[in-house]
What does this fold into?
Amino acid sequence: MTEKSIVFFDIDGTLLDHDKKLPQTAKKAIVSLKEQGHEVAIATGRAPFMFVDLREELEIDTFVSYNGQYVVLNGEVLFKNPLDQQALKSLTEYAVSNDDPIVYMDHEDMKANVAHHDYIVESFDSLKIDHFPSHDPLYHQEREIYQSLLFLKDKEETKYEDLYKKFDFIRWHPMSVDVIPAGGSKAIGIEKITRELKIAKENQYAFGDGLNDIEMLSQIPNSVAMGNGHEKVKEAARYVTKDVGEDGILHGLKLVGLLK
It folds into this structure.
């Protein structure tokens, strides 16, 4: 058997295609990786409760969620990096004054500070998942929140970036940005896992397509951008594979030499 490697996969636009379906070629490729003794993990901006079915289908129990803020290795929590509570309280007050709704997310659930908003509906509809945030404006108080979603139009987050240096704002939808701890990224979560497993850099691989994958793909030598990925993501990666809907995962794994 070849030397053991670890492969990290983003979910949306990487493992899941444009219809939020897992291509059979991707599933078979992951089975093949495991049969060869390689570690397979997920690295996503999603909450843990948003991809339980996918983890069960692929039998994956190691993952980086919330863009690196909640990391699990072999089913056990390895690393947590919650949002600063005081800064989040201040951000909430400012968002309310701007009529910009927020969703608060911990490892178990998510709640919105408004009962209804079209931007929230539109953003979550695009994910095509069974989860939708219910209303609880106090959910962020006295609990660890790993990520928030701020709902506002493109470029409007700049006013928040100037005021809240403890947070990074990463756009994932035309109507929404992720709010994570400043400097937090999938790359940091990945480093926690690879260090614990003692897997050398040259044996680390990652696949992604979105702006929140840039740090991950820049850090990992054997990085692969999906053909459908953002141009900046392709620039950050060592390799570029085919579109997710054109067997991009299988093609990429062959490209880097993990599968024949």
